[in-house]
Structures are given as structure tokens and as C-alpha cells.
Specification:
Layout: E1 4-13, H1 17-31, E2 35-48, E3 51-64
Antiparallel strand pairs: 1-3, 2-3
């Protein structure tokens, strides 16, 4: 039997939502062992002078706890 935990993280990018997701997962993997998935809870853009200048995602990251 395994037990997992879910934690919420936020990641940003000036390129795309995909890039923000990949950056968030890469960073989570540096700290958390056993990452098995993520659910993108929210997406947000930053707009300056009518143009999109940033992308932000809030994700629920699932990881399996060590025995």
C-alpha cells in the first residue's frame, strides 16, 4: 500500500502556460521525491498595454510518501 500527498504550487513563465507547467514540475522534482502527477487548478495571464506579458499556473502536485 502506498500513501500520497498533494501540495499546491504556483509557477510563472513569460513564454506560455506549457512552459510554466514544465518549470513548476521541474522545480517540484528538485524538492519532492515520487512526483506522480499534477492537476492544473488555475491559469492566469498578466497583461501590460494590451499585450500578454506573463503566464501563471497554480497546480496541485501529487507525490508518493516514502515508507
Amino acid at each position: 500500500m502506498s500513501v500520497a500527498r498533494v501540495t499546491e504550487i504556483s509557477a510563472t513563465s513569460d513564454k506560455s502556460f506549457k512552459d510554466a507547467i514544465e518549470a513548476g514540475i521541474a522545480r517540484a522534482n528538485k524538492t519532492l521525491r515520487g512526483v506522480t502527477g499534477a492537476w492544473v487548478k488555475e491559469q492566469k495571464v498578466t497583461v501590460e498595454k494590451g499585450r500578454v506579458t506573463g503566464y501563471q499556473v497554480n497546480m496541485m502536485v501529487t507525490f508518493v510518501l516514502d515508507d
